[in-house]
Design brief:
- This protein is of the alpha/beta class.
- It folds into 3 domains: 3-67, Nucleic acid-binding proteins (OB fold (Dihydrolipoamide Acetyltransferase, E2P)), CATH 2.40.50.140; 97-125 and 268-429, 3-Layer(aba) Sandwich (Rossmann fold); 131-248, OB fold (Dihydrolipoamide Acetyltransferase, E2P).
- Helices cover 23% and strands 33% of the residues.
- Strands 8, 9, 19, 20, 21, 22, 23, 24 and 25 form a 9-stranded mixed β-sheet that branches.
- Helix 1 (93-110) runs parallel beside helix 10 and helix 9 packs parallel to helix 10.
- It is globular.
Length: 430
Amino acid sequence: MRRKARRGGGRQIEVTVEALGAKGDGLATADGRPLFLPQTLPGDRVLARVTGERGGGFKGEVIELLALGPNRADPPCPFFGPCGGCALQHLEDAAYAAWKEEQLTVALQRRGLAPEVLHPLRRVAPGRRRRITWSALRTAHGMLLGYYQRESHQLADIDACLLVRPELQALLAPLHAVLEPLLEIREQARLTATLCDTGIDLLIDSRQPLRLEDREALAAFAAAEDLARLSWTDGDDEPTPLALRRDPILTFGGVAVLPPPGGFVQPTAEGEAILVELVMAAVPAGAETAADLFAGCGTFTFPLAERLQVYAAEGAEDSLAALQAAARRSDRAGRIEAELRDLARFPVMADELSGGDVVVFDPPRSGAREQAAEIAASDVPVVIAVSCNPTTFARDARTLVDGGYRLKEATPIDQFPWSGHLELVAVFER
């Protein structure tokens, strides 16, 4: 490792990238510690600047790419680099798929685990995102709308995104136009857009006070873009609909659900279908009851309730209300019991679960540490885990295995192309 003179506020070094980290950054070594370098690949030789510390190592930026490693591809998006929405467009597709699949294996190996069967990676193509969150900032020079740069507070302005459905991509230019006169200089907003069965549901989250003319402009925007619903929140109060032209409906297991503004749903319809397929395939033929923990708006609750009695627990009040309302309107009301429950603070206890046939749990990225301990102490014969974080899943899987379960099978799912995010479904049995 040859050190360069200090310039530009950070130490400069020449390094060779050795591997890819979990977020898709290249990993080199500096002073015996990992150095994270965005947009680099294994085999790259770079002149880099150390810019700070991160995760027990250093973060850095590339000053000059001195030599290219193998498996490099031309990024398909002109915004790749400044935009932080994607991390790995520069990696050749076969190498990318192999790396993505490896994330689950590595996470489990670190906990001393391996599934009896590891299924091949299931993939969702780019351009299928039906739910996306953009950031907006009004500056003295105009409106910025897009994604934040990696490890930065700088917002990359975009007018196209290869990740999202065409219907959402078509919103970018009109959103630029409607937000610029509405937001004051230096005012920010977050925009969550969901393409539902009946049209786009848009939530704008900003501290900007709304005048009457602002509300009128947004209502006119909703009509011009044929939005199903447009809502506004300041981040503290409940979202207020500014335009409700029709209910934004999503269908789970044949049941129509009206999700809350900005509420969590799977980011792609194709990824959701894969998850439901794998969950339902793991339910034993003779099962009669299931617990659906972290149930959300009912992604798994309603398919399960086609043939099982289901107990659904969810900590977000608005999501649970959407589930309950949909259940009442459906033919499955008698097969669903739903409860508002913070499963991190008040997990469903082992004695409450025992005697049931199946547990399905789909926690947030932080995992289900407390709930996994109670599942591990129960006598439920089949547990199906859905996760968007291999690291916290592996921790929870270790708890289940230590409690007497065996990790029967696991399937990695790439629902977030060109990113470090990986989803999975795993099946445990006693």
